[in-house]
């Protein structure tokens, strides 16, 4: 995660909620912002990070790997 310089300069902080699908192979698909931080730079960085995640362990139903939706909060705070 890299804090966007434009957001740092504007002192923007917040939480971005990103929803995506973890398919039956563990791949992260179709990330989208479902709740914005109010900063396009932070939203874009959250989507970039989620899109570059390594494979997850897929959900299982009745012993089979299945696709599922997942919502992940990405927090941006300056210290």
Overview of the structural elements:
This protein is α+β, with helices and mostly antiparallel strands and 79 residues long. Helix content is 22%, strand content 41%. It is built from two helices and five strands, in the order αββαβββ. The chain has helices at 5-9, 40-51, and strands at 14-22, 28-35, 59-61, 64-66, 68-76. The strands form two sheets. A three-stranded antiparallel sheet has the order 2-1-5, covered by helices on one side. The longest helix is centred in the middle third of the chain and has 12 residues, at 40-51. The radius of gyration is 14 Å and the shape is elongated. It starts with a helix and ends with a strand. The model has no long low-confidence stretch (mean pLDDT 95).
Set down the secondary structure blueprint.
Layout: H1 5-9, E1 14-22, E2 28-35, H2 40-51, E3 59-61, E4 64-66, E5 68-76
Overall body shape: elongated
How are the strands of the biggest sheet laid out side by side?
Answer: 2-1-5
Fraction of residues in helix: 10-25%
Strand tally: 5
State the end-to-end distance: 15 Å
Q: Outline the biggest β-sheet.
A: 3 strands, antiparallel
Structural class: alpha+beta
> What is the averaged pLDDT score?
95
Question: Which range does the strand content fall in?
Answer: 35-45%
Total of DSSP H or I helical runs spanning 4+ residues: 2
* Structural Rg: 14 Å
Ranges where pLDDT stays below 50 over 5 or more residues in a row are none
Order of helices and strands: HEEHEEE
């Amino acid at each position: 995660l890299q804090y966007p310089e434009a957001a740092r300069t504007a002192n923007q902080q917040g939480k971005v909620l990103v929803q995506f699908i973890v398919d039956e192979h563990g791949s992260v698909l179709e990330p989208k912002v479902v709740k914005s931080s109010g900063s396009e730079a932070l939203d874009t960085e959250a989507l970039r990070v989620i899109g570059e995640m390594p494979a997850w362990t897929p959900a299982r139903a009745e012993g089979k790997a299945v696709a599922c939706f997942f919502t992940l909060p990405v927090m941006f705070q300056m210290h």
